[in-house]
Design brief:
Elements: H1 2-29, E1 34-48, E2 57-67, E3 72-83, E4 113-130, E5 140-158, H2 169-175, E6 178-192, E7 199-213, E8 228-245
Antiparallel strand pairs: 1-2, 1-8, 2-3, 3-4, 4-5, 5-6, 6-7, 7-8
């Protein structure tokens, strides 16, 4: 009896292994449609109007999409925008300092204030994967075009939240809230293997934003900052993907 159970287990294991090998071969040897969940990071260098307000910028977020059998790819994503390089950081709160060049809290102590870049963007993109120099038909060079909406501002946070000039509506006079539509282009490489873990992409991303200041009054300049900007970002973007394959009639794709 024990021998029969052992033989059955060996035969079952062999069958499962053979089926998975066949499924992996199906994914590797032919183009298949797949839903994609992607986690992404972009390191961006600003140009033009953006560079007059911020320095090095990071984007981190996620997107969901679908790649067709003919290697068209459609994605919808959302990203958190952040950075520590604010150009006017040293003069932004100058009007709040005392004769010792310090900002004082409501308790009469020195305030410690963190100033950073904050924001977000949402986008939709359409692209095409060309299986040039690719290990399988589901991988290759990728080109995408997209558009969306971006909003960014100067994040100001006082430790202890005890500086009256930086509470409520007063804070809005310093943050220089800016938003508008964006256009994006990406060129890079997309690798989609036979397993769930080894799937990634990377390349260069270009962003052009057509934005404007949305605050009615700017306290640091003591005036209205009614300006329009052309925000340009250029950088490198990488992402990890989790694909979900469709079922075929008589076989399943392994993921």
């Amino acid at each position: 009896m024990k021998h029969r159970i052992l033989i059955f287990c060996l035969l079952f294991s062999s069958a499962v292994f053979a089926q998975r090998s066949t499924e992996q071969k199906s994914v590797s040897d032919s183009a298949v449609g797949s839903a994609l969940f992607r986690v992404e990071y972009a390191a961006q260098v600003p140009i033009g109007d953006y560079a007059s307000r911020f320095g090095f910028t990071s984007h981190i977020g996620a997107s969901a999409g679908y790649r067709t059998k003919s290697n068209w790819i459609f994605t919808l994503g959302g990203y958190y925008v952040f950075g520590n390089d604010v150009i006017d950081k040293n003069t932004l709160l100058e009007s709040m300092t005392n004769s010792s060049n310090l900002i004082i809290t409501s308790g009469g102590e020195q305030a410690f204030i963190n100033i950073s870049q904050q924001g977000y963007l949402v986008n939709f993109s359409v692209g095409k994967i060309f299986p040039w120099l690719a290990p399988n038909p589901n991988s290759g060079f990728m080109f995408t075009l997209g558009g969306g909406f971006m909003e960014h501002w100067i994040g100001i946070r006082a430790e202890g939240n005890n500086v009256p000039q930086l509470l409520g509506d007063y804070k809005k006079g310093f943050d220089r809230l800016t938003n508008g539509i964006i256009l994006q282009q990406f060129i890079g490489y997309h690798f989609q293997g036979s397993t769930r873990l080894l799937n990634f992409y990377g390349g260069f991303e270009f962003t052009q934003g057509f934005t404007g200041n949305r605050r009615s009054y700017d306290i640091p300049t003591m005036g209205v900052k009614d300006e329009d900007y052309i925000d340009v970002l250029f950088g490198f973007k990488v992402g990890w993907m989790m694909p979900f394959y469709k079922r075929n009639k008589n076989q399943y794709y392994y993921y």
